[in-house]
Design brief:
Shape: globular
Radius of gyration: 28 Å
Structural class: alpha+beta
Number of helices: 24
Helix content: 40-55%
Strand order of the largest sheet: 3-2-1-4-5
Largest sheet: 5 strands, mixed
Number of strands: 15
Length: 616
């Protein structure tokens, strides 16, 4: 029995599916779904549904329980099902995602036409022809019968190409992963469908989005340009480093001369002789009050363009999380449209809708936990359970008494803790002894000795990683627990550090996807994912119960993937918004004070002056 025979036996139907739609204003989700086209891969039957002027309200095109839906970039198709209020597919094979599984690390482009070309499949249309048809779909407000037929024909061509890609991928999996029996087939198909289900989960998150305090956000966005100008003007009255709204290096140079000629002469310069304006340079002179003020205000002003929010038709901030986009299969949301990629103080605009609370739940020290449980390093697991791996290491080496309280030790032995934190990060990410020596301000011999001691303490983990690297060179690939693969290519240069870190990062992504799936199965609304964290939205009457359930499900997901518990922490978000750490909250409060002062001329100068004198 071949892999294809097994798939045919497993499902009543295998349907290739493609949809066409007009996107919402964020270009993330479907707004108007135009059509669905399916093809049965075995009978070759074609099913075409024009949906633009129809509403099915839960009436599915097919029985999805025993059907495998095959799509190229299933995130889009799942979004269409959600928008049309159709039941979402249960069993999904995403040919885009599986092309990545087969060739992650070898190829970079997994578009339908590119993947078809790699399999020597004659594409039914060129990229230029596809773009022409896309314009018809995107730009039209109404569709004649001729338009409908043309769009359905275009959609069908993609279905036929996707079907050919699917058949080639089935053979590719069989050969590349040496699938020989039903047990092999079952394992690989299950992993593929787990990834497909994750695309459906991310489509749900994309469709949900993040609730925002629109009144506050709109006020800030509308008034900040004026407030920013006023802030710069008041600042210039004191130190004169701006020409209009632009920071000027030559004016800053004059300031240095006025402060102290010695500072001016010792200030680092670029190879062209100009003043260095890097963050590191400013921090070397941060003890000088005028320099501190220049740096902090300059830094603050650079963060006040309101990136990070993309408000959709439903009034929520929505961005494509771009799941599976990195080499370790993590999400890669666009920086300019995602609140958690922007300055932390901007998160204050996140506020749950009436009747709900938000919780930001993140895994606690996920990476060392994964390292310990994956490798079976009991010492590293004990270090994770102790509450602080760096304090644990210091205690093992006699630098902190073993019975010393961990929370107290973080404050009382800050320098020692920071030293072992640098060593841990160096061993995890392959930092050399020279770089470690520079950070610790010691010689390379001492740095090398510390690195060696740390690796000896957790030698089981480092032996495990070395064995994974040996497997990589034997099999030319490395996989996660659920089969997300990265392949070694002799034609592409990659660092050894990225390979050593892959099992940690990629299995961390597996844990988060398993957690999201469990949260959705338990009807908990997920608004966003952030590396190793989720933002959920829960009804106020049930918020404590749902918080506990969510945390339990996230812990269970870690046990499912790596066989051990990873604990979680959380932030509570109510009608006041996302309250930040002290520093970030002070920044936000002061910025809002300046914005508010724009509409209050009599207090504007006082407010701006207050910021300049007390800025953080």
């Amino acid at each position: 029995m071949s892999f294809l025979d097994y798939i045919k036996q497993k499902f009543d139907r295998v349907l290739i599916c493609d949809t066409e739609y007009q996107p919402d204003i964020t270009n993330t989700n479907p707004k108007n779904v135009l059509c669905y086209v399916y093809q049965d891969i075995f009978t070759k039957e074609i099913f075409r549904f024009w949906e633009y002027d129809k509403q099915r309200f839960g009436q599915s095109h097919f029985d999805l329980e025993e059907t495998l839906i095959v799509s190229h970039y299933a995130l889009a198709e799942a979004g269409s099902f959600l928008r049309s209020l159709l039941p979402v597919p249960i069993n999904v094979w995403d040919t885009w995602l599986e092309a990545k599984t087969l060739y992650n690390g070898i190829r970079n482009n997994f578009s339908l036409l590119h993947v078809a070309n790699e399999y020597n499949i004659d594409a039914t249309m060129t990229e230029e022809e596809k773009e022409y048809e896309r314009r018809l779909i995107l730009d039209s407000k109404s569709f004649s019968l001729e338009d409908q037929t043309r769009i359905l024909d275009y959609c069908q061509k993609d279905v036929e190409t996707t079907g050919a890609v699917f058949l080639n991928q089935v053979r590719d999996f069989e050969e590349k992963f040496k699938l020989n029996n039903e047990e092999d087939y079952e394992l690989r198909l299950n992993q593929i469908c787990i990834r497909g289900a994750a695309q459906v989960d991310f489509a749900k998150i994309n469709a949900t989005g993040i609730s925002v305090d629109l009144k506050r956000f709109s006020k800030f966005k509308a008034n900040w340009p004026v407030a920013r100008k006023q802030l710069i003007e008041d600042y210039n009255n004191e130190l004169n480093c701006f020409d209009g709204e632009v920071f000027k290096a030559e004016l800053f140079e004059d300031l240095l001369r006025r402060i102290d000629s010695k500072i001016y002469s010792t200030w680092p310069r670029t190879f062209t002789g100009k003043l260095s304006l890097t963050e590191a340079t400013f921090k070397k002179f941060i003890h000088i009050p005028e320099i501190e003020k220049v740096f902090e205000v300059k830094n603050l002003l650079s963060k006040t363009t309101l990136g990070g929010f993309s408000i959709s038709d439903n009034g929520r901030s929505i961005t494509n999380l771009r799941p599976f986009s990195t080499s370790s299969y993590r999400c890669a949301p666009g920086g300019s449209t995602f609140p958690f990629n922007a300055s932390a103080w901007l998160r204050n605009f996140i506020r749950p809708p009436w009747g709900f609370y938000n919780y930001y739940i993140d895994y606690r020290s996920q990476e060392p936990a994964i390292q310990g449980y994956l490798s079976g390093d009991e010492k590293l697991i004990d270090a994770y359970k102790s509450g602080d791996i760096y304090i644990f290491a210091a205690k093992q080496f006699g630098e902190i008494p073993k019975d010393y309280d961990v929370k107290k030790a973080k404050k009382d032995f800050l320098d020692i803790r920071n030293k072992w934190k640098i060593i841990f990060l160096a061993t995890s990410y392959g930092m050399g002894r020279e770089a470690v020596a520079a950070q610790l301000k010691t010689d390379t011999g001492q740095a090398a000795a510390l690195l060696k001691k740390f690796k000896q303490l957790f030698h089981v983990y480092y032996d495990y990683i070395n064995s994974r690297m040996n497997t990589l060179h034997r099999d030319l690939r490395i996989e996660t627990v659920y089969g997300c693969s990265r392949h070694l290519s002799k034609y592409k240069r990659t660092t050894a550090n990225s390979w050593r870190n892959y099992p940690i990062q990629a299995n961390g992504a597996e844990i988060l996807r398993a957690a999201i799936h469990a949260l959705h199965k338990n009807n908990i609304k997920v608004c966003a994912t952030i590396h190793d964290a989720v933002l959920i939205e829960v009804p106020i009457p049930e918020h404590k119960k749902q918080l506990q359930l969510a945390r339990n499900l996230m812990t269970d997901a870690a046990i499912e993937i790596i066989g051990g518990r990873i604990e979680t922490d959380y932030n509570f978000i109510d009608e006041r918004g996302f309250i930040q750490s002290d520093k970030q909250q002070i920044i936000f409060n002061k910025l809002m004070t300046v914005v508010d002062s724009v509409t209050q001329p009599d207090t504007r100068s006082v407010a701006a002056d207050s910021i300049l004198n007390n800025i953080i």
